[in-house]
Amino acid sequence: MSVRVRSVEPADAAAWERMRERLWPSAEGEHAGEIAAWFAGDLSIPAEVLIAEVDAGNAIGFVELAIRGYAEECYSGRVAYLEGWYVEPEARRRGVGTALIRAAEEWGRALGCVEMASDAALENEDEPRGAPLGGVRRDPPPGHVPQEPLTGRRCDLASEGEPAYCVAPTPDSAMPTLKRRLMCA
Can you give the pTM of this predicted structure? Predict the structure, then answer.
């Protein structure tokens, strides 16, 4: 399967709405209204939407992205944030999610971000457990000691030069943050 990831265009509105509705069920027309407002420039979040397609125009997934000044366990003050991520069930486990995440990372890097984060519901069985995200950990590995804020030399839970995702639960939050260092050296 050859996957192409690109920025969403007005012609993608119906496909984007269909996939959004599957990800976040809502009242009839709610997503259509938000999509129209986004294309009109009336919404600032998401800052970017990327669509994955096969066969020139067959949309099979999307990511909605933002830049946030803060995300739990992120230290840079400018975090690329994955607001939403969806892949059609029949296209899952075929590299579509990976292609979307890689494109989202590139988007974040191009805007000067060195971290990427998203919410992750621990009870969601459809949450990725590893492959597309390059190693999701639901809790820190044994013996893990939290690192100081990013120094530019090494990322916690990552080998030198390798990206890593980790889940950073907080005592008062049922929605831990899934975070990824975009650049490690």
Answer: 0.72
